[in-house]
Amino acid sequence: MADRQILKVSGAEARDFLQGLISNDVKRADEGLAYAALLTPQGKYLADFFLWREGEDYFLDVANGLAAGLLQRLKMYKLRAKVEIAPVEMTVAALADAVEGAMPDPRWDGMGWRHYGATGGMDRADYDRRRVAGVVPETGIELIPNETYLVEAGFERLSGVDFRKGCYVGQEVTARMKHKTELRKGLVGVEVEGAAPVGTEIMAGEKPAGTLYTQAGGRGIAYLRFDRAGGEMMAGEAVVRRG
C-alpha cells in the first residue's frame, strides 16, 4: 500500500508516552496489531493508525496524508520524555489471506491481514468492498480530521478505543459521548440503489439526513442523523435505505 507511512517511537519511555496520548490501550500492541487514534483535546479525530511493538520499539502505520501532522503533534507532546520519533522506510501490504509474518487487521475479521515488509496485496476495489461490508471507515473519507468523533465513527466496535484505560488526549469528551448522551448521529451501513459521488448529501424528503460515502456491491457507508433516517432517502440520483 503506497499510501501509508510508518513512524517509529523508541526510547525508555515510549510505552508510557503513547499510553497517555492515544485512544487505545498500548498493551494491545503486545499481542499483535492494535488500532487507535490521536484526538484533539476537544475529542475530535486527528489521525488513526495501526500500532505494533517490536522489542521496546513501537511502530505506527498511518496514512501518508496525515503522517507529517501526526509526527509534528507527537513531537509537540514529547517535551522531556525519553523517546525518539521518526519515519522509517517500510512497505505495507493488506492481504486477503494469512501468510507468515502477517498480523490480522483488528478492526473487523473480514478486513484480512496486514504485512509489514511485503508488497502487493488486495486491490483497492476489494479492500473497499470489505470496508463497506464491515462499515469500516477510511482515513480522509469517512474519517475527517478536526470533525469526526470516535463514538460516532464506531471505534468501539472497531476495537480502536478503550474506555477503561484511563486518561489520554480527548478522553473526557469521548467518555461523555459514550456514557452520558444518546447517540444521535453516526456511521452506519446502508443499502444503495444506483450510485452517487462520495460525499453526496442524503435527503429525507426535503430535510438533510446525512452524507453518503464509500459504496460497493449495492451497499454503502453513510453518516446519518438517526431521527431522520427512515424509509427511502435520496443521495443525488441514488436511493438509500438504512439497514
Could you explain the architecture of this structure?
By secondary structure, this protein is α+β, with helices and mostly antiparallel strands. It has 5 helices and 14 strands. The protein has helices at 14-19, 64-78, 124-134, 150-153, 171-179, and strands at 4-10, 34-39, 45-54, 57-63, 84-88, 92-95, 103-104, 113-116, 185-193, 200-204, 207-216, 219-225, 233-235, 238-242. A 6-stranded antiparallel barrel has the order 9-12-11-10-13-14. Strands 2-3-4-1-5 form a 5-stranded antiparallel β-sheet. A 3-stranded antiparallel β-sheet has the order 6-8-7, with no helix packed on it. The protein starts with a strand and ends with a strand.
Write a concise synopsis of the structure shown.
The protein is α+β, with helices and mostly antiparallel strands. The chain folds into two domains: 4-179, 2-Layer Sandwich (Gyrase A, domain 2), CATH 3.30.1360.120; 185-242, no CATH class.
Question: Which terms would index this structure?
Answer:
six-stranded antiparallel beta barrel, 2 domains, alpha+beta, globular, five-stranded antiparallel sheet, 14 strands, 243 residues, single chain, Gyrase A, domain 2
**Approximately how much beta-strand content do the residues carry?**
25-35%
Fold-level CATH name of the largest domain: Gyrase A, domain 2
Shape type: globular
Helix content: 10-25%
Q: How are the strands ordered across the major sheet?
A: 9-12-11-10-13-14
Tally of alpha and pi helices: 5
What is the CATH class designation of the largest domain? Answer: Alpha Beta
Low-confidence stretches: none
Total beta-strand segments: 14
Overall mean confidence score, pLDDT: 96
Total number of distinct structural domains? 2
**Could you give me the name of the CATH homologous superfamily of the largest domain?**
Probable tRNA modification gtpase trme, domain 1
Instruction: Report the major sheet.
Output: 6 strands, antiparallel, barrel
**Termini separation (Å)?**
31 Å
CATH architecture term of the largest domain: 2-Layer Sandwich
N to C succession of SSEs: EHEEEHEEEEHHHEEEEEE
Structural class: alpha+beta
